[in-house]
Every structure is written in C-alpha cells, then in structure tokens.
Amino acid sequence: MAHKFTEEQLNSADRALLIQMILNLQDQSEALTKEVHDLNEKMQLMMEQLVLAKKDRFGRSSEKMDSPGQICFMEVDGNIVFFNEAEAVYDPDAPEPEDLELPKKRGRKRTGKRDEDLSGLDTNIITHYLSEKELIDEFGENGWKQLPDSISRRYKFVPARVEVDEHHIGVYSSKADGHIVRAPHPKGLLHGSPVSASLGAAVMNAKYVNAVPLYRLEKEFERYGLAITRQNMANWMIRLSEEYLALLYDYLHKLLYDFHVIQADETPCLVHRDGRPAGAKSYMWVYRSGCMRLEKQIILYEYQKTRNAAHPRKFLKDFKGICVTDGYQVYHTLEKEREDLKIAGCWVHCRRRFYDALETIPKQGRKGTIGYLVVKQIQAIYREEGKLLDLSPEERFRQRQVVVKPLVDALFVYLKQNEPKIQAKGKMREAFDYALNQERYLKVFLTDGDVPMDNNASERAIRGFTIGRKNWQMIDTIKGANASAVIYSIAETAKANGLKPFEYFEHLLHEIPEHMDDHNLSFLDDLLPWSPALPERIRKNK
To answer: pTM to 2 decimals?
Structure first.
C-alpha cells in the first residue's frame, strides 16, 4: 500500500524530496496513461470483433451502403427466416405470373436476325373446336367465320421416371469351326456396371450442380424402386471421371493458356483419408478464363492438400498473361519469379475491409468519416466502370483512362494523406494497410480492357462447391477429391457457356466412350461447350 503524506509532513519536507516525489508521480501518471490507452485499444478491437461477428451471423451479406429495399440473405422484413420461409414470404394478394418461362436475357441487337422462338420447351398443342353441328346450331348455315385461336397456356410438370434399356444382342456361332460373333452394340460405360450415360449424368447433376448429398440420392432412388447405394454412386463418379471426363478436363486446361487474362481463387475443404491427421485442411483451387470475354468460358477446379505456391506455380507453368487474384501472397511470389506473369488485385476485397471497418462505428456516426468517404469513392469507381461493360476491350481501356483512372488516383492520394490519422490498430488500420500495400495490383485493371476490377467471377465459380461442402462437410478420399474437381469443372464450365449440365454430362458420356480407341484427341473439339456441333437440346434458353 502506498504511503500517504500528511499536510504537516509536506510543509516540513525539503525541496529535493518534493522534486523527487513530483518526478515519481509523473512517471506513474505516464505509465497509467499508457496502460489506459492500451486497454482502450484492446477494448476497441474486442468491440470490433463482436460487431463483425454479430454482422456475420445476423446481418446483411451485401456491401451496399444505401439499399433499403434489398432483402437480406435469410431475412424477410427484418426477421431471420429458417424453416418458415414459405410462411414468411406468403402473400395472398400477389399476382399469378402470366407465364413460367425465364425471360430472355437482353443482349446486343443482331441486325438481320429474324424473330425466333427460343423457349426450348416442348409444346403439346391441344385443340378445342366446336363441331360443325354446334356451329350451325349457334350461327345457322354458313353463318360464321373463324377468327384466330384464343390461346391459353398451362405448364405441365412431368416427374422424373426410370426406364430400363434391355439390349438383346444377337450371338452367332459357326457350325464349321465354332467361332462366335456378336451383333454390333453400344459399349457399356463401366465394365460390369449397369450405369448408363443418363443415370451417371443424373447423379452428377444432383450432387455437383444441385448440391444433393449421396445419402439423399440413395433415398430418392429407393422411392423409384432402385437399390443404388451411395457407395455405388461414389464409385461411378470416380471411375467416370478418371476414364472419360478427365480427357476433356486436361484438354480445357491446355486451352486455358490461350487466354491472356485468367482469374484464380481457392477455398478450404476437408478430405477424410488423405494420410494426414484428422481435421487437416485441404484446398480446392479454381482457375477460370477472364470474365470480360463472354464468348468462351473455362472454369477449372484443382484439389491440393495445401495452399502453398507450388500448386499455382505448376498449374500456371505455361500461362503467360495477367492473373486476377484476391491479394493472396503466393501469387505475388510467382510474379516475382516470372517476367511473363502479371498479377491484378481485387477491388471487392479492398472495399470489403473498409466496409467492415465502418460496421464497427455506430450508424449515426459513420457519415463524413474517413472510412465512409473512402467507400463512397470506391462506389463511384464501380459506378463509372459499370457503364463500360458493353464496350469492346479497346474502347473500355480508352474510357478507363479518361473516366476511371482519375478517380482511382484521387482515392490513393486521399488514402496517403489521411493514413497518419488512423490509429495503429483496428479494422480501419487493416483496411488502409491492405489498400496501400495492394496499390500496384489494384491499378492493373487500368492497363488492359480485358482485366476486370475484381475477382468476383472466381468467387461465383467456386460457390457451387462451397454450397455442396456445407451439405456433406467433407470428401472421403483423395481420389474422390480429384473426381469432384473434374466434375465440378465441367459442370461450372457448362453453366458459364449457357449449357444444361445434365444434358451436357449425358452427351459427354455417350460420345467420349466411342472414341477411346482414337489415336488423337481431335474429337474433343466437337465436345467443347462452345462447339457448334453440340445438339441444340443441350443449350439453355436464351
């Protein structure tokens, strides 16, 4: 316990003692001030983490600053919705749609093109006409003329069904020497397996497109009277992937090098039996062609045990051009190793950090803050960039120099001027550090009209896998992980090119087995997702 001096003692104390006492008090005050400051910083960081954790669990997923009419993810009218979504969004006064077909996407007008019916739906025309007797009774002899039909459309749903193709193959034996000949017949997909192209495609579509776990598929097949176990289906997926679909995957991998702009991302996954301790984290990497070029799209997954630079180094060894990433350091390492590779940054990741920092500030106090003005400036950059989407790469580059580049330059001037005002720790400091450290990468999109501002396209491409991952939590084996990478790649590539995944899988499983004895892979050109040789039934409604 500290000693307390009385007033009498202080009055009688000599000058040297008083000076020493004052100096000691100053030291103690400075120490306490520093301690309070450190505690305040820790408290601020804890409050930031608490606010962001609450936002991640219950808040909006959008980063828009002003979107009062936007419905939040898993939220309706401010209430979190889980199993009662139907009741939450039910509206008895909502009008019935006039038709159920997806609207055609608006694109550039093509001159000289006739109107076409691109619905792609089979239509059964059912006529309802009055008999001649009924007409005479109503109008008299020759007392009517027929007007254009009144058309009423009803959309009929035909549930899935399972049929058996039983192939009876003629077998003939020579009476002279006993040799046997069989009539020509389609080859089976897998030796000793009853799986067909359509059944294999159905499992792939359910699991890798619609994220249905195999155990649910097993129950669904039971309802159709089929005893197909999840082990059966897992084996089919691995074997069909290895024997057939991997050929197309490798072909697409080589074609990816023809693009001068690609995008990359990665997401963690768990593989149960990969030779490491339980719970060890693996990664599914995704590489895709640049999203600004829409005529041909390639999306490829690759499974790897780790997240180190060796994997993209090998995958991209023959790629020369620009790779858009989220700022992960391994890509910057690759850029330093090679003169023919340039890395572009992601503005969404930059914006997200400032947005998270703003979330830690009470809403009424955000407007006018440094972070608020930074986010508004980034929004202005996105707004001007959005006006250039329909331009050619060359014209987009020119317009970026005139309109977008000044906004980007102004933002970084503002960041550098205000960086000293930001406290040493916290979300706002992290946001500033990220933006300033990534400046050279964030400006790469200004140098090429084919480079997007962000890496959102890669994140969208990997979303199918992340949704599936939530349903089945982990992949059992490395072989299963590699098969998943191949099948996901083809599914996402099909979707990106406007194909129906089920029909495309079925077509591939019909065609590839017929070419297994070919001496080259040229037949794959007709199976590429943008090939004009593909049947029209595979293409989605425009």
So the answer is: 0.72
